């Protein structure tokens, strides 16, 4: 086990801030109290789960696991961390700090869902088993490492569902994200959730997400005339003259005389720099009167030299109307100039796009091929946090329950096994939690599945397949991570597979059907007996 961050072998957290000290103060004070009482090494089991799906939906995507493993791998308080903690907890005994300074995750085991799995309320996404104090200290960093990744992956998946499988989705949120870490996580986990790429260059380098981009208004504004183009050539030909030749011909009946020459010069210069990667931002002055005719001039000139323009980007206005008008113009130009490729030119749209606007566009009709989505994706404006919690469910082998006036906040006690029961065509029917030691469900054998809290909600299920949802992913005693972490591409494929297999009415925007999460008869009875045992009986007078 490592003794300092520098010694760590294998996976380390992407963000240097992720460490044992990135925690809430109460984790340290509780650890001291556990230590002082001699309880720090008692065997504890914690479950990490959420109670309500985000975005008024009925599903979520589990993400962030590989960073959790990276934390486990490097979890240690450095000498300077310990020196700092001494200053904030001056009354704590010196031996506590000695003990804290040698802590690591060698006695911890983690069981988790596969990263990228579809997940549902109350199902433990991660189960942590280990010495009470260490497992307690892991609460805050684990929640931090799972909540936002899972939220953003879910948000991205919802945007993918709203846009349709055939659209290209690009994450453009770096400038609006909650700091550098929020931005990098957004790029990574939106890719996992179904986006195709990001504008974030660092995400390309560090994580391997495909990076893409167009250009900004500044590039167009910076040109006022063709005089700013010092060298008019492309491939040894007078490219500027070819572009101007198209400018002087009616392109789709629009443009001549009314288009902006500075904009045309800007497009020309950009095409000289990227003859095979030309995408024009067409809304700087007037999309239909200037931007699109200018785009067509440059696209035609490029084609004369054997280069294919990629498309144009709309960043304002009614994207439904404008995209359809752009498509009409490019289709007409394709006919007029006998250049069929123009009819399928890629129309990119950006500007405050969110799930609602994607549904609105789908309802209204549009001709957009690619959506660039920033602010609403990375800030998860519709729901800025996922409420994963981390609850003690067993201590020294004794199952523990947490009661609440709010039934949904009652925890399901004890170490549990979690299964997904599949019906015909591998469609999941429900998830079921069993008490530790209960016989796993068997294909073809009926099992009674009960709602944990509503006695009347129960169903007998005969699965055709049974999938165990949690696998051991960290075994400190056996050297740490139990297998190599999947690549982001593999996790993305897991998300896509889960979304394809689930009942589609669970995914729909309006009135999605809740997915059933249940407990076995044995766990149901146990939960309710412990509930009764722990709940005080009120005295009424
Ligand atoms: N969490 C749960 N665990 C186990 N059984 C449940 C759960 N929730 C509901 N049930 C039971 O599953 C059955 C179907 O419940 P559901 O709420 O889906 O009703 P439905 O709308 O009539 O069914 P469906 O949508 O499948 O046609 C009922 O018998 C109900 O009691
Ligand atoms: O709208 P988002 O989903 O966040 O997508 C990213 C936005 O960032 C860029 O411009 P910026 O917003 O900086 O300026 P502009 O809208 O005034 O062009 C881009 O043109 C989009 O509008
Ligand atoms: O490449 C783009 O078009 C882009 C990148 C970031 C933000 N807005 C747009
Ligand atoms: Mg904007």
How is this structure best described in words?
This protein is α/β, with parallel strands linked by helices and 541 residues long. The chain has two domains: 304 residues, nicotinate phosphoribosyltransferase (Alpha-Beta Barrel); 155 residues, Aldolase class I (TIM Barrel). It is 37% helix and 18% strand. It has 17 helices and 23 strands. The protein has a seven-stranded antiparallel beta sheet with strand order 15-14-1-5-3-21-22. Strands 7-6-13-12-11-10 form a six-stranded parallel beta sheet. Strands 19-18-23-17-16-20 form a six-stranded mixed beta sheet. Strand 10, helix 12 and strand 11 form a beta-alpha-beta unit. The longest helix has 25 residues. The N terminus is likely disordered. It binds adenosine-5'-triphosphate, 1-O-pyrophosphono-5-O-phosphono-alpha-D-ribofuranose (PRP), nicotinic acid and magnesium ion. One of its GO terms (biological process) is NAD+ biosynthetic process via the salvage pathway. Pathway: Cofactor biosynthesis; NAD(+) biosynthesis; nicotinate D-ribonucleotide from nicotinate: step 1/1. It catalyses: 5-phospho-alpha-D-ribose 1-diphosphate + nicotinate + ATP + H2O = nicotinate beta-D-ribonucleotide + ADP + phosphate + diphosphate. Its EC number is 6.3.4.21. GO terms for molecular function: nicotinate phosphoribosyltransferase activity; transferase activity.
Helix content range of the residues, please?
Answer: 25-40%
Output the strand order for the largest sheet.
15-14-1-5-3-21-22
Question: What's the gyration radius in Å?
Answer: 29 Å
> How many strand segments?
23
Low-confidence stretches: 1-7
Q: Which structural category fits the helices and strands? A: alpha/beta
Q: How many domain regions?
A: 2
Dominant shape? elongated
Fold-level CATH name of the largest domain: nicotinate phosphoribosyltransferase
CATH second-level architecture of the largest domain:
Alpha-Beta Barrel
- Which small compounds were modeled alongside the protein? adenosine-5'-triphosphate, 1-O-pyrophosphono-5-O-phosphono-alpha-D-ribofuranose, nicotinic acid, magnesium ion
CATH class of the largest domain: Alpha Beta
Note the main sheet: 7 strands, antiparallel
By CATH, the superfamily of the largest domain comes out as nicotinate phosphoribosyltransferase
**Termini Cα gap:** 60 Å
Question: What is the average of the pLDDT values?
Answer: 95
Strand content: 15-25%
Q: Please tally the helical runs, counting DSSP H or I stretches of 4 or more residues.
A: 17
